[in-house]
C-alpha cells in the first residue's frame, strides 16, 4: 500500500490545505455518502479547486492525514481513491477500499474504548 512520507504530507498540507473525506463502512454507507470522517490532502491545485467548488462528478486521489479505525491498514499517508459528491463530503470509492475482513469486527467496541481512554 502506497504511503507518503511525513515530509511530503507536510509539504502538501502547507501547499493545498486539508480536506475531509468519508471512508464508508458498508456499501449502503458508500451509496449514501456516509462513513468515517477523515482528514486528507490532495497533490494538485486542480484537485483542491474541484473539491472547494463542490464538483459533482469525477474521482481524485487523496492521502490520509490520520489513521482509520474502520480500516487499520489505512493510516497516515495512505493513498485512497475518492469521488466527488457535489455539496456533500467526498467519499472513498467502495470497490477500491481494503477487504472488509481487514476491518475490525468489533469496530464499535474499539471506538468506545478509545474514547474512554481519552476522557
Structural class: alpha+beta
Q: Strand order of the main beta sheet, please? A: 1-2-3-4-5
What's the number of domains?
1
How many whole angstroms does the radius of gyration measure? 14 Å
Mean pLDDT: 87
* Number of helical elements: 4
> How much β-strand is present in the residues?
15-25%
Helix content: 25-40%
Describe this structure in words.
The chain is built from four helices and five strands; from the N terminus they run αβαβαβββα. The protein has one domain (6-118). A five-stranded mixed barrel has the order 1-2-3-4-5. The longest helix is centred in the last third of the chain and has 12 residues, at 107-118. The protein is α+β, with helices and mostly antiparallel strands and 119 residues long. 28% of the residues are buried. The termini are far apart. Residues 109-115 have low confidence and may be disordered. A hairpin with a 2-residue loop joins strand 4 and strand 5 (88-92).
List the helices and strands and how they pair.
Blueprint: H1 6-16, E1 19-23, H2 27-32, E2 36-41, H3 45-52, E3 59-64, E4 79-85, E5 88-92, H4 107-118
Parallel strand pairs: 1-5
Antiparallel strand pairs: 1-2, 2-3, 3-4, 4-5
Short description:
The chain is α+β, with helices and mostly antiparallel strands and 119 residues long.
What key phrases describe this protein's structure?
119 residues, 5-stranded mixed barrel, 4 helices, 31% helix
